From TrEMBL:
<dbReference type="GO" id="GO:0071949">
    <property type="term" value="F:FAD binding"/>
</dbReference>
<dbReference type="GO" id="GO:0004489">
    <property type="term" value="F:methylenetetrahydrofolate reductase [NAD(P)H] activity"/>
</dbReference>
<dbReference type="GO" id="GO:0005829">
    <property type="term" value="C:cytosol"/>
</dbReference>
<dbReference type="InterPro" id="IPR029041">
    <property type="entry name" value="FAD-linked_oxidoreductase-like"/>
</dbReference>
<dbReference type="Pfam" id="PF02219">
    <property type="entry name" value="MTHFR"/>
</dbReference>
<dbReference type="GO" id="GO:0009086">
    <property type="term" value="P:methionine biosynthetic process"/>
</dbReference>
<protein>
    <submittedName>
        <fullName>Methylenetetrahydrofolate reductase-like</fullName>
    </submittedName>
</protein>
<keyword id="KW-0274">FAD</keyword>
<keyword id="KW-0285">Flavoprotein</keyword>
<keyword id="KW-0560">Oxidoreductase</keyword>
<dbReference type="GO" id="GO:0035999">
    <property type="term" value="P:tetrahydrofolate interconversion"/>
</dbReference>
<comment type="pathway">
    <text>One-carbon metabolism; tetrahydrofolate interconversion.</text>
</comment>
<dbReference type="InterPro" id="IPR003171">
    <property type="entry name" value="Mehydrof_redctse-like"/>
</dbReference>
<comment type="similarity">
    <text>Belongs to the methylenetetrahydrofolate reductase family.</text>
</comment>
Length: 273
């Protein structure tokens, strides 16, 4: 696999503003291939509790394979949840055969270490590197506001072979800027990609908060209420966030959590470019 297909290289070459889309495996092919905008890559989520890692005839692998067959770049999520060594071996082989070289490793929702051969993502990173060398570009989650112990764990994963950090959805530039500075202080030098949820109403944001178990500030909720009282789109809040991330943090690539509403996000991006 050429280095140029790795996430770290893709985002490096895209200039002042680039973006990627996260989709779930039940996204329709029509949605994927009728877009006017062209994201740098699509990330495809992994749901072990649904498919139980019984075989490779599952939604995430199918969608990732279809995207790659259409020359789209793919970041496939993979969780420790229910992950067995034999299954991972088979998966890594198939991904290499299909020219899929980017992985995003997470622990997994309601993770039970008793059902997996891997106790944490550090073990998965170490195993993948031992089996496949530098073939895969590996991403890991990062969280603005995480404590020092969590940040040390991130550093440990990078030393084991992780290549970039991608955050959960964030809603203020100061928190992201602080994360960057803390990483610099700890000599964490990999790219850090901010996650963005382009909500337009408080109802949409609340649904995302409940689904992803994230926290938002009271200031953000107040700002949303003010926008709705004035009958102004809440998207202005996210536009301002992007501008601040670009100016304060020198950020150029943004990862959008689309909830498979690709055309809505596409319209949103067209207004920003």
């Amino acid at each position: 696999m050429s280095e140029e297909n790795k996430i770290t290289e893709l985002i490096k070459r895209k200039g002042k503003f680039s973006y990627s889309f996260e989709v779930t495996p039940d996204v329709s092919e029509d949605e994927l291939f009728s877009l006017k905008e062209d994201p740098v890559f699509f990330s495809v989520t992994w749901h072990a509790k649904q498919h139980q890692c019984k075989d490779l005839n599952i939604g995430p692998v199918r969608i990732a394979s279809i995207l790659r067959s259409k020359q789209k770049h793919v970041l496939l999520h993979l969780s420790c949840d229910m992950l067995k060594t034999d299954y991972l071996d088979e998966l890594l082989t198939v991904l290499q055969e299909r020219n899929i070289c980017n992985l995003f490793l997470i622990l997994g929702e309601s993770y039970d270490p008793n059902s997996s051969d891997f106790k944490n993502t550090s073990e998965v990173i170490k195993y993948i590197r031992s089996k496949t060398g530098q073939y895969f570009c590996i991403g890991i989650p990062g969280f603005p506001g995480c404590n020092d112990e969590k940040l040390q764990q991130i550093k440990d994963k990078i030393e084991l072979g992780a290549d970039f950090i991608m955050t959960q959805a964030l809603f203020d530039s100061d928190g992201f800027q602080t994360l960057i500075k803390r990483c610099e202080k700890m000599e964490i030098k990999v790219p850090i990609i901010p996650g963005i949820f382009p909500f337009e109403t408080l109802q949409q944001l609340n649904g995302f908060i409940n689904m992803c178990k994230i926290k938002v500030s009271e200031d953000l909720l107040t700002a949303i209420n003010d926008k709705e009282k004035m009958n102004r789109p809440c998207s202005e809040i996210i536009k301002l966030l992007l501008q601040e991330l670009m100016s304060k943090c020198n950020t150029s690539h943004f990862h959008f959590f689309t909830l498979n509403k690709l055309r809505n996000v596409e319209k949103y991006i067209a207004q920003i470019k």
